[in-house]
Amino acid sequence: MMLDAKIPAGDLADKWDKYKEHAKLVNPANRKKLDVIVVGTGLAGASCAASLAEQGYSVKSFCFQDSSRRAHSVAAQGGVNAAKNYKNDGDSVYRMFYDTIKGGDFRSREANVYRLAQCSAQLIDQAVAQGVPFAREYGGYLNNRSFGGVQVSRTFYARGQTGQQLLLGAYQALMRQESLGKVKTYTRHEMLELVVVDGKAKGIIARDLLTGQIERHAANAVVLATGGYGKVYYLSTLAMGCNSSAIWRAHKKGAFMSGVSWIQFHPTCLPQLGEHQSKLTLMSESLRNDGRIWVPKKASDEREPKDIPEEERDYYLERKYPAFGNLSPRDISSRAAKERIDAGCGVGAMKNAVCLDFSKAIKEQGKEKIKEKYSNLFTMYEKINGINAYEQPMLISPAAHFTMGGLWVDYQLMTTIPGLFALGEANFADHGANRLGANSLLQACVDGYFVAPYTIPNYLADELKAEKVTTDHPAFEEAEQVVKAQLDRFLQSKGTLSADYFHKTLGKLLYDKCGLSRSKESLTQAITDIKQLRESFKNDLKITGDGTVNSELEKAGRVTDYLELGELMCYDALTREESCGAHFREEYQTPDGEAVRNDQDFCFVSAWEWKGSGAEEELHKEPLVFENVELAVRSYK
């Protein structure tokens, strides 16, 4: 199958305007006849559902949480990028576009990335109009700061709660449409299957998590805005409920998965403290604006970090990457931390952390200024660790965080299944092999507020003529039976091991063999180990409880998807014989440990097609064509 990204012709700066000028429209009287299902109520899902309902479409909104406000977008802390050049420091749409392309190690589509930068300024105006309390200068102007991988200040922020504040803006827009009767919300519902009729997405099968009831829902188009799959590692910055099931079930119905092995490890998380943990806590990357990262120069140093004198500290990011220093991109900063920890220079109880030190900033700016910028983050750190970070360094460590991979989508954010759209972190579209900090909230909002409201109606315009599909269609019956059969299998399993056991085992296996670094040997072994784990899961799983309210049953479905996804991640990493961004193959590095890209053979986006259980997935390639930037060795030195 040939992949057609449907990128408009013409100059890069004109592509999006040209698309909007020629997109098909649906007149207001006809919009109410068309139904759209939106799965997920984070920034991408809530903004898309609210925007489409505002236009007049009938929208059903689904989330597995008890409130759409509890979507994981609330966890994003540091900020949202926009090329507004408020600091007059040389920023522009093109500069932001180039930083993002370079940050992703030249493994993303030019047209999508340029659109992201183009729409960024619009988003800030939209958010301010919604009442998002961005930080402001003394005179009232919006303030901004720097994030990793850039040399300008383009990150707008609301202390360390930016995701929460943006989500409240999207949530109130969604609730307004619900009160008007244009959106019907289904909380505590989990999508378990996509329904495809004549090759087009026409609905979903969902399970009411409070009753166990299986429900059918039909629509003219389906939008998946269900976030990323970083929780496949078990220990990650994501909430326990985050999962990959919606996109994975769509994948098994024909939607291609892209860039699945591109997983970002965030450099500023709290380190693991023991085996009891189920997640790791994120500390905002914004802290790297004023915090300096270091480890003891001497391996196995047993002194407390605050007792180690200045001359015995190795500020390794400043040493290795002087141009960007502590604001080096996430993939590079995380690998550099791992390299120092592996060399025996780690600190903390498990020797698995590095120091993030604010003493110099406090000395230069005063404690009150640092408090003004980061007080809630310092408070959170003290609550968790009992340590006052104003007086001694924070301890941080890399942790699985963001997935650049996801469902393959074209320029319109439509997957390889017509009528199925994927927004935000659920798609692969904008970040290449590494995401720059504060581009996540931006992509989710831009997809939902500014892109989908043009591209989904462009598809729906032709659906007016098509025959309306209802939940009585045989495809719904078939999909429902598949869902019920799987749930029955789980409930009848007679093993002795919990779903959590398999999730933890898979997570450790992936961290060790397909984590911050990978090799042919480790990936080959991981694939073998995951196949064995999948067999064990079939035979040894134990589910307590029944088919009604049962979190163990929910977990089992998510873990079975993770096991299949984990295998594809390793296979994708094995076939990409280069190092790029967050994909670091040990065989492809310079003598001083930097990534070696292979543009001749791997300048493409991998798109994997499901060929059935037990069969190898088929690789399709979307070549990446760079007409506006020159492929260069990515350097932050």
UniProtKB/TrEMBL annotation:
Cellular component per GO, a single term: plasma membrane
Pfam families: FAD_binding_2, Succ_DH_flav_C
Domain FAD-dependent oxidoreductase 2 FAD-binding: 35-441
Stretches of the chain forming a coiled coil according to its record: none
Transmembrane spans: none
Lipid bilayer topology: Peripheral membrane protein
Record-listed E.C. numbers: 1.3.5.1
Location(s), subcellular: Cell membrane
Residue span, Fumarate reductase/succinate dehydrogenase flavoprotein-like C-terminal domain: 503-636
Gene3D superfamilies with a match to the protein in the record: FAD/NAD(P)-binding domain (3.50.50.60), Fumarate reductase/succinate dehydrogenase flavoprotein-like, C-terminal domain (1.20.58.100), Succinate dehydrogenase/fumarate reductase flavoprotein, catalytic domain (3.90.700.10)
A GO term, aspect molecular function: succinate dehydrogenase (quinone) activity
Top-level EC class: oxidoreductase
Catalytic activity: a quinone + succinate = fumarate + a quinol
An example Gene Ontology biological process: anaerobic respiration
Keywords per UniProt: Cell membrane, Electron transport, FAD, Flavoprotein, Membrane, Oxidoreductase, Transport
InterPro entries reported in the protein's UniProt record: FAD-dep_OxRdtase_2_FAD-bd, FAD/NAD-bd_sf, Fum_R/Succ_DH_flav-like_C_sf, Fum_Rdtase/Succ_DH_flav-like_C, SdhA/FrdA/AprA, Succ_DH/Fum_Rdt_flav_su, Succ_DH/fumarate_Rdtase_cat_sf
List of catalytic residues: 330
Protein name per Swiss-Prot or TrEMBL: succinate dehydrogenase
Lineage of source species: Bacteria, Pseudomonadati, Bacteroidota, Sphingobacteriia, Sphingobacteriales
Gene giving rise to this polypeptide: sdhA
